[in-house]
Write a structure and sequence with these properties.
Largest sheet: 2 strands, antiparallel
Number of helices: 2
Strand content: 5-15%
Strand order of the largest sheet: 1-2
Number of strands: 4
Order of helices and strands: EEEEHH
Distance between the termini: 26 Å
Helix content: 40-55%
Shape: flat
Length: 66
């Protein structure tokens, strides 16, 4: 697990490449997905609208860049 952050992966859900720790998909509890898709699945499970979800993901990205 030490090298998980250095590995480039492709998310099977969105097709984007990412670095860092993957998230475990809530759909099957087996598939590793990118952190953004993990966040989207979690917010979807809470009943958050897609529009609000994208705002939240955008805020997360903005705060990581600082």
């Amino acid at each position: 697990m030490k090298n998980e952050t250095n590995t480039e992966r492709t998310c099977p859900r969105c097709g984007c490449t990412y670095h860092g720790r993957p998230a475990l998909s809530r759909t099957d509890n087996e598939t590793l997905i990118c952190p953004d898709c993990g966040t989207r699945e979690a917010l979807e499970a809470l009943g958050i609208s897609p529009e609000e979800t994208e705002k939240i993901v955008s805020i997360i990205h903005r705060n990581r860049a600082e």
